[in-house]
Amino acid sequence: MLSKATYFLLFSIFSQCVLASDRETLLSLKTSIDPSNSLRWKGNDFCKWEGVKQCLKNKLSKLVLESKNLSGTLDPNVLNQLDQIRVLSFKNNSISGQIPNLFNLTNLKSLYLSYNNFSGEFPVSLTTLHRLKTIVLSGNQLSGNIPNSILNLQRLHIFYLDDNKFAGIIPPFNQTSLKYLNLSENQLTGVIPATGTLLRFNSTSFSGNVDLCGESFHLSCGVSPVTGSPAPAITPMAGKYYHRRRVTKIITIIAGFVGGFSLLCVVITLFVLILKNGVKKNKISVAGEKVSTAKSAVVDGGAGTRDGFSPGGGGGDDGTGVLVFTGGGGAAEMSYRLDDLLKASAETLGRGTVGSTYKAVMETGFIVTVKRLIDATWTNKDEFCRHVEVIGRLRHKNLVPIRAYLMARGERLVVYDYFPNGSLFTLIHGSKTSGRGKPLHWTSCLKIAEDLASGLLHIHQKPGLAHGNIKSSNVLLGSDFESCFTDYGLIKFKNPNSIEESSDVSLFYRAPECRDFQQPVSQKADVYSFGVLLLELLTGKTPSQDLVLDHGADLPTWVKSIREEESESGGEPVSSGKLAALLSIALACVSMIPENRPVMQEVLRMIKETRMEQPHVSSNSSDHSPGRWSDTVQSVPRDDHLSI
Questions:
Q1: 3-class DSSP state of 182
Q2: CA pair distance 391, 389, nearest whole angstrom
Q3: Residue 266 shares a structural domain with residue 288
Q4: CATH number at residue 147
Q5: Residue 228: inside a domain, yes or no?
Q6: Is 264 part of any domain?
Q7: Dist CA 302 CA 321 (whole Å)
């Protein structure tokens, strides 16, 4: 009979062995996919490592390594040791090779491998994992057929295979659980099965497959005169490439059987149709007034896929999209149409909590920023319009103006002015191209703080309106390098029940009462986030899990502890004068108790008073000039900053 002490000792040894097992597995995984050593994994407790979101009974259950500059290949012998994993995500990296056989991950519920360099066929082993609900493989080089065994996954909720090279026919999906489907931009062929499950979706989910058709999805099917098999008829939705190919076939056949006269008639008819389709007139809402013309500028929800704006989500909307301009509706806001936007070349600028951001360059050379919202379709259309109209009317020198928005099937786009000077995050921390960021002089910190406090106060002057997603990457630098908030008000459209991961960085900006995303954002929560942003500005440190791993505390707690050490030392505080004043404002904002946080009007007043104490810095417009900004943004030793 073992004594209690002996039993406890054996249990402890066993626990450590179990802990070491997944720890060693993760280190083996790092060896195969992290040649640049992007993951700073250290310490024995792997459950606190970067990207490890959850452990259950000392076993890894949730691993999220997104946008970490990972490469190499996935070793199946390593991954299959993680037998308790529930969520596995390697989104937005450069991992290549085949997706391995994951037969042993029987507890896996969500798999995100999108936007990598995976090749080969669909991993059939996934169809044996009966708990699997989410499969996101978008943006790779996968090919072959979609196996019919995918029907075995009766819990499948999200299935994204868009932007790959899949061929063959679409399986007859019958899962009642399937709510999100995107098979667009592949090489799929044949008739889309009209199952009850697939009929929930519209053409957005299937666009970009030129030999795919289905009457129920507004992709009409005819009979090919060459093969006799079903083939899509020519429709405006079919895309330019498909249109050209079908016209060529038709003209060739007519020329052989009918002769020159018939061919001439067809050419004339097609020419008239092209001209008719090319002359589109808009019906656009500007400043609350309807400007009616002969034809509304509408587009099917899938039309934007070629340009990178289609989310490929489910259905439920009325099938048309209207570009609606907001704000004052001046000439600059009316200088492009819906067609111009959808034909624009799109470059991905980033992916965040509420959606993806693109730089859209139109054929005229006009550039805008487009935010494609991830979860906005869960809200009512009328509610979406009302809210965007409210935030779209906000105009302030420290807010990036919203110029227009678009609704279509499964699609919500918000259009902003393009700011080419980058973000505050890049200014503070640098980027891959510019290298590490340079320390900001305290005068620059004060200027940025006043800019942002002014912009945030303008938002808060609308009763109940909040930014909701404050972080340094959501602060852009204007033409005079003034700091301007973007993405304000959009957090309202994030589905609180979404299983999409929010980044560590976003989480550590959020007020404690809002970190589960179940509580609606508030102006008091904005004040907390603003305080964290000020601390980031002053310390040069990102509010992320790295800080917790290195120092055991989040940014506000860490700074408070340093401040207390200064006070207890009894000596002259290093953080003195105006720097100390700004630091005190930031710490007041990050109070754990919402009622103890100042309102933004008070915050702005305190910042202005601190700036007014400077003998050579005024608050007039010359302070916003590039020259004055260049004078204040200087490389000074980190010792001139907060001494931490």
A1: strand
A2: 6
A3: no
A4: 3.80.10.10
A5: yes
A6: yes
A7: 10
Tell me, yes or no, whether 375 and 311 share the same domain.
yes
At 324 the three-state DSSP class reads strand
Evaluate the CA torsion angle 484, 489, 491, 494 in order and state its sign: negative
CA distance 68 to 406: 32
373 and 513 in a single domain? The answer is no
pLDDT recorded at residue 128: 94
Please list the alpha-helical segments (H only) found in 258-333. 260-278
Co-location of 291 and 260 in the same domain: no
Query: What is the sign, positive or negative, of the torsion defined by CA atoms of 401, 445, 525, 462?
Result: negative
From 251-255, 267-271, 310-314, the region with the lowest mean pLDDT: 310-314
The helix or strand, by DSSP H or E, that contains position 359, with its residue range, turns out to be strand 355-361
DSSP string, 49-102: STTEEEEETTEEEEEE--SS---SB--HHHHTT-TT--EEE--SS--EEEPPP-
Looking at the structure of the chain, the number of domains it has is 4
Q: Are residues 153 and 261 in the same domain?
A: no
Per-residue pLDDT reduced to its tens digit, 57-109: 888 999 999 888 899 999 989 999 998 999 999 998 999 999 999 989 999 99
Q: Which domain holds residue 320?
A: 284-417
Whether residue 443 is found in the same domain as residue 369:
no
Higher local confidence (pLDDT), 442 or 476: 476
* Chain segment 570-608, per-residue pLDDT in tens: 544 444 577 788 888 999 999 999 999 999 999 999 999
Closest residue by Cα to residue 473 from 522, 511, 430: 430
**If you ran DSSP here, which 8-state letter would residue 468 be given?**
-
Which residue has 């989500």 as its token pair? 313
